[in-house]
Amino acid sequence: MTSDAFYIPYLIPAAILTLAFAIRLPVMIRFWRIDPNVRNVGGLLVLGSGVFYFGRPETLATINRVSGISNFAAPVVYTVLTLFCASCLVMVIHWRGGDPLRVRRTTYVIGLVYCAAVVGLWGTFALADVPVERLRDLDTYYATTPWMREHILLYLLAHTVACVITASVTWTWLRQVAGWLRAGLTLLVVGFLLNIGYDTVKLTAVIARWTGHDLDWLSTYVAPPVASVCAVFVAAGFVLPHAGEALQRLWQDFRQYRSLGAFADELAVVDGSALRLPRRSSLSRRLVQRRTRINDGLLKLQPYLDPEVRRTAFQEAVARSESPARAAATAEAVAVVAAIRSFSKAGAGRSAGSPAPAAPGGDATEVPNLVAVSRALRRSPAVAAFRAREVSYAEPASVGRAGGAGLT
Q1: Both 233 and 275 in a single domain?
Q2: Which residues 6+ apart lie within 8 Å of 324 measured at CB?
Q3: Which of 117, 207, 234, 388 could in theory staple to 191 by disulfide, Cβ–Cβ 3.0 to 4.6 A?
């Protein structure tokens, strides 16, 4: 197998974990000092990606060459992996919460245990005799070598314990959460279960060596792809809740922005002087501007809104078996169309010297559901029929009488 084939099990998961870190970076910068969970997840993603960056055969060879010590890269990579395990445990401890004193005490114990494991890794490597450089099969090649045997067993044991605890604790939370968080936790459970599978494959190959059998292919060719898949699930598990909620908000904003287009176009005759936003303005900012324009237009229409028009339209919509909510939106839309017609007539009269209408008394109220009214303006047959009529349901007796009526 060529060296290019080994890029896939290492570089792709490293890049995915790095991307996950980059996606969460704005949140980590914002809450780094006040939320330990943010720090834990950030450290976990950095260490996880470091395992794959350092674990590449090419990187291992470089570390060995620079250090001048054969297989010096082994304790380096296994140290990063052990610290990753400690980060997993600290993360679940903080996620579980509880008494702050107990959380700090448990975190301290985890730190001591895994620091001792790191010291053990370097101690056993210093005592081991590993003269032959092995970039892809070190675990099985030196599985029966004194002290290197303990070195390999120590990192596998630390990794297995961390993955078992993390997977079991995360599994217990699945029934307590919902939505994107539940989906993310599910991916994390799968990822850490696959990590347990990785440890099982490695241990099987090592124990086979102890018993005189040869299952080295499990450690050399099966374990790296399994680790790659683990990284994909773990990275997706951490990113999905944050990215999913962001995408959901973006989609909701997009749907609202499009749905309110008919309302904004309808009110353009009332307030045509809209402030144009820069092309790079965010969708949320554009949505706020559109809603503001609609509310400003409705405020100007308040003197022309006739409650009798709304009441008649609502009764007719109910008679057509529309639901109360839909009938209310239809009635509001008809009232707006009638008010715009009155506004246009009054504007023509003022241009001929007529006085402007008096401002409505009291505070104007906002339409409860702008999106529903906007859809009625575009799709409702009742609104289309009203537009086609030459005479409205009821002409306002006077502007002053209708002035106090607001959209409700």
Answers
A1: no
A2: 318
A3: 234
